[in-house]
Amino acid sequence: MTSIEVDGRRIEVPSGFSVKEALEKLGYNITLHPSDKGLFMPCQVGGCWACALKIDGEARPACTAQVQEGMRIRTAAPMGTPRRMVAGFMGHKTGGVGTPWWLESGLGFIEAVCFTSGCNLCCPQCQNWRYAFMDVGEPLTPEEAAERMTETKKECGVERIAISGGECTLNRPWLVSFIRLLREQNPIARIHVDTNGTILTEDYIDELVGAGMTDIGIDLKALRTSTFMEMTGLLDEGLATKYLQTAWEAVKYLHDSHPQVFLGIGIPFNEDLISIAEIQEMAERIVSIDPWIQVCVLDYRPEFRRPDLVRPSHWEMLEVHYILRDCGLQSVVCQTERGKIGPAGRLLG
């Protein structure tokens, strides 16, 4: 057993426990959705630093910090400047779900992008798992990340900045501060947030827009909770339902309340993960919001824990394109092995 002090109370917990596990054993409520009461600890890998607590006087992620003899933990102490893991500062030639399709020319970089670590989902077929589950390196403050991002933008010769992941929205104070600094340093740049939308509440969206976000891409992974759970690796049906509902509501709220923000929606496709029928139902629901919302269908390839997946062919994706057009969507883009199919049914670039 290991003796630690939590909020002034001396207790013993099993050796080898993480701080998160110790807090759970002591009865602290650990939450995975920020609207729930308790300590928000969404990624479990130490990437997002949303769970950072004062541990022996320093901010450390509770989900990965191991208990040590005599450790002192404060669950309500001020954290100071937020931090999180960020990597992959680079130019991006194809853009993302929230990048207007007409910008893709094949002639150079469209955006400067960075990838935040940590995700609240654990998709077996995660297409970006090297960043999503990374906790190696030094966490960056918003100031440090903004400086690197601004320099990358200058090197790429673009006026678009994309923040991807992982899931960039998990550490709200960090993201809002990062975007605000990017706006101050890049007054004419478009700032694009790429997200799964699962914790994007209305007040959070308002804060991001106020900080300077101009574009957003939301990956709507399913319409049915059962599909969403299989797609994301979630086992808690209640949590999965809440995440899925939050993401769909975020799309509707952005469309209705922030029409100045460019909104793109991502829909996954692989016949082993989601049916054509469900994709049609998703399209019909999007049409009911606005048939002109840009919808990008992503051809999920074999990745991470699903090397058995077979990437959909170009012709399968072209068929999906026309199915969604027949549902009433007017701005459909399909990612394929040959490039992106634009709204007119032809390859872009």
UniProtKB/TrEMBL annotation:
Pfam family, one: Fer2_4
Cofactor: [4Fe-4S] cluster
Keyword Metal-binding: yes
SUPFAM superfamilies, alphabetized: 2Fe-2S ferredoxin-like, Radical SAM enzymes
Signal peptide positions (record): none
Ranges for domain 2Fe-2S ferredoxin-type: 1-79
InterPro entries named in the record: 2Fe-2S_ferredoxin-like_sf, 2Fe-2S_ferredoxin-type, Aldolase_TIM, Organic_radical-activating, rSAM, rSAM_sf
Domain Radical SAM core, residue spans: 105-330
Source organism per UniProt: hydrocarbon metagenome
Record-given protein name: Pyruvate formate-lyase activating enzyme related
